[in-house]
Design a protein that fits this description.
single chain, 255 residues, globular
Length: 255
């Protein structure tokens, strides 16, 4: 990879997945956007690191539960609820549609339905409850690891499943992901897991791969492929499941 690409592509990934400003408001081709996906887990480190910083700084003023809530709010705002929107659309589509065409039609509707609303409520409650159950010294670590791992899920899902629509932003990413992107993303995830004990790191990796596999299996059965909304749903499901895994590890004194 050329040095200019190694600098530019992370910035493209940041611009695509967050509201963070990047130099020159980069214009990108479809091919470059897809290749920038290798750095999606790096964006997770940035978002998770920002949420962790909010949590740590807020502890000087607020109680633990408020600090957790502020960290969750920060992560949602800095990404414009990009992945949460995908989760809501996915649950609306799969909940209200029985055929592939009907599912895709509902998912494209900008209005949110009952399934999507409930999914978002349960998602936020789950994140808040699970994180609030952890010791403060563990919360900031799991914020970084979970945000990194959740963005890693995009890579294997896009690489292993065809795109279910004829067009869409997700297709721009999916058709360009190859072994090099998977390698860079996986190394980034492994580096993030160094924040945890070896037992917790192994558990986090196992949960991430398991959720990714189960989501991919479900998407294959229902859509014979994947969409951008599906990728957002897998992202959010893996994040909240990792927080739940942390609670279970604490319960069995493995943190």
């Amino acid at each position: 990879m050329k040095a200019t690409h190694f600098i530019r592509r992370p910035l493209v990934a940041i611009q695509f997945l967050t509201r963070l400003p990047v130099p020159g408001n980069l214009s990108t081709s479809e091919e470059e956007l897809g290749r920038a996906s290798a750095f999606f887990p790096l964006v997770g480190i940035i978002v998770g690191g920002g949420a962790a910083a909010v949590f740590l700084l807020a502890q000087y003023v607020f109680p633990l539960s408020t600090c957790v809530l502020l960290a969750i709010i920060f992560a949602a705002l800095i990404t414009s609820g990009f992945h949460e929107d995908g989760l809501a659309d996915t649950f609306d589509g799969f909940g209200g549609g029985w055929t592939k065409d009907r599912v895709l039609e509902i998912m494209r509707d900008s209005r949110i339905g009952t399934y999507g609303t409930l999914a978002l409520i349960f998602l936020v409650l789950g994140k808040y409850n699970f994180l609030s159950s952890l010791p403060p010294r563990q919360i900031w670590r799991w914020l970084i690891v979970a945000h990194t791992a959740s963005r890693w899920t995009i890579l294997p899902l896009s690489a292993s499943l065809p795109y279910a629509r004829a067009e869409g932003q997700g297709k721009l990413v999916a058709k360009q992901i190859g072994p090099s992107a998977l390698f860079i993303g996986s190394v980034t995830l492994l580096l993030a897991c160094l924040l945890l004990s070896w037992q917790a790191a192994l558990a986090a990796l196992f949960v991430t791969v398991l959720v990714t596999f189960l989501c991919g299996l479900y998407f294959h059965v229902r859509l014979q492929g994947v969409t951008g909304d599906c990728l957002g749903a897998a992202n959010q499901l893996s994040e909240v499941t990792l927080y739940l895994a942390a609670v279970l590890l604490l319960r069995f004194s493995l943190l």
